[in-house]
Write a structure and sequence with these properties.
Strand order of the largest sheet: 3-4-5-6-7-8
Radius of gyration: 24 Å
Order of helices and strands: HEEEHEHEHEHHEHEHHHEHHHHEH
Number of helices: 15
């Protein structure tokens, strides 16, 4: 096989990296190159074609160091038994590409992952070397996210955290049994052990920074993980429970969900069809409820059906409210913030606006309408000085009234 060009390598390895969703850049350290020192910045704009919580579009060079792999995970397109075209970058090539793309204003950072080549330690050494070249030789001050390898030596993972803004370790699947069946080379205990070590290193680095001004930073953007949805038999209740344990146990910044996508030369143990993408969306909504709306994982699980799955036609917040109608209606002029956050149709911003506005005058329904995006979804669950839903909250067809209207799109519409 002849040697392939850098552009061909980039086409192969950037495409191979598209399955990893955990590349957001929130929570990173503030660095810049003002005064002519260094290259790049993490300030102002965010960092891959994803969106930060405040709406900023973020752009990364998202690539694999190599798609060669000694592991044979059934769900992975890059597994060793897969018949895909292979390529491999050297650390210097990745560093040079990052700087070249940055100087052309295409990106503001790097998200680097890799298949396992030779051994976990060798691969981790190569990834750390990319970050070292960028930081020490190019004085690159932009964002770096490294996907670390749980099977690698902890010291190598620690070195990655000294160079990277964020590190992540994929738990891959929601259940230990699913991981054992679909990824026989990986161990749930080893993955969680590596996550616990990273958590400890982050905490120690923050503590040292408080006591010593020049103490080194360690992954200031924290750590994240990703779960594949729909590759095994785990239901949404299993996934929500796993995510909650990960947040509580390892102080993760984010848990990302990636809908399983059928791959070429697929193993017979994998499903033939991908799950609906709306399922992935509902899981992200449930994740939001736990992170920003004060719901516990058990409360989110209460929104699931008898099969443990979140409804696809309505969001989990509305599903929970319909199951617990005795909680409503809530008086927007008196209800505490934590209760108002449970009203379907009221987001965090809207609730904060309501709390601020009611300090100055008593709110009417028109006032609430001006503070929210859609009053129709909110009306059955609130009361104001001039509005009380009466029997509306208890209507048997309330779900049908509030569910988004299904619309058939036209293929050749103008």
């Amino acid at each position: 096989m002849g040697q392939i060009s850098t552009i061909e390598k980039l086409a192969i390895l950037a495409d191979a990296a598209k399955y990893d969703a955990s590349c957001a850049s929130s929570g990173t350290a503030k660095r810049n190159s003002k005064g002519g020192k260094g290259i790049g910045s993490t300030e102002g704009m965010g960092i891959c074609h994803a969106y930060a919580p405040d709406g900023r579009c973020i752009s990364l060079l998202k690539v694999l160091l190599t798609n060669h792999c000694v592991f044979d995970c059934h769900y992975c397109v890059n597994r060793k038994s897969s018949n895909v075209r292979r390529a491999r970058f050297s650390p210097q090539e990745v560093a040079d590409l990052t700087i070249a793309f940055y100087r052309r204003n295409y990106i503001e950072g790097l998200f680097l992952s890799s298949g396992i080549i030779k051994s976990s330690n060798f691969t981790m050494e190569q990834m750390v070397e990319v970050a070292r070249i960028l930081r020490d030789e190019y004085d690159f001050r932009g964002y770096i996210h490294l996907k670390t390898i749980p099977e690698a030596d902890p010291e190598l993972v620690y070195q990655a955290g000294l160079y990277a803004d964020r590190v992540s370790i994929n738990v891959e699947l929601p259940t230990d049994s699913g991981l054992t069946r679909l990824a026989p080379d990986k161990s749930a205990r080893q993955i969680e052990g590596a996550m616990a070590k990273t958590k400890s290193d982050i905490v120690e680095a923050k503590d040292a920074k408080k006591r010593f001004r020049h103490a080194p930073k360690f992954a200031p953007g924290g750590q994240s993980t990703q779960m594949i949805v729909g590759a095994d038999g785990a239901n949404d209740a299993d996934i929500v429970g796993k995510a909650s344990r990960l947040y509580d146990g390892f102080r993760l910044r984010r848990v990302y969900y990636s809908a399983f996508s059928p791959i070429s030369d697929a193993s017979a143990v994998l499903p033939l069809k991908r799950p609906p993408l709306i399922r992935e969306h509902r899981l992200y909504q449930s994740d939001w409820l736990m992170r920003f709306y004060g719901y516990t994982s058990s409360e989110v699980m209460q929104a699931t059906g008898d099969d443990g799955m979140l409804p696809l036609d309505i969001d989990p917040k509305l599903a929970w409210a319909l199951k617990f109608r005795d909680t409503f209606p809530l008086d927007v002029n008196r209800a505490p913030r934590e209760q108002l956050l449970r009203v379907p149709g009221l987001g965090v911003t809207a609730v904060n606006r309501i709390i601020a506005a009611r300090r100055h005058h008593t709110l009417r329904l028109d006032d609430v309408a001006r503070l929210t995006q859609s009053i129709a979804k909110v009306r059955p669950f609130i009361c104001t000085t001039d509005w009380r839903p009466s029997l509306l909250t208890d209507r048997a067809d309330l779900r049908r009234l509030l569910a988004p209207k299904q619309e058939q799109l036209e293929l050749f519409a103008a």
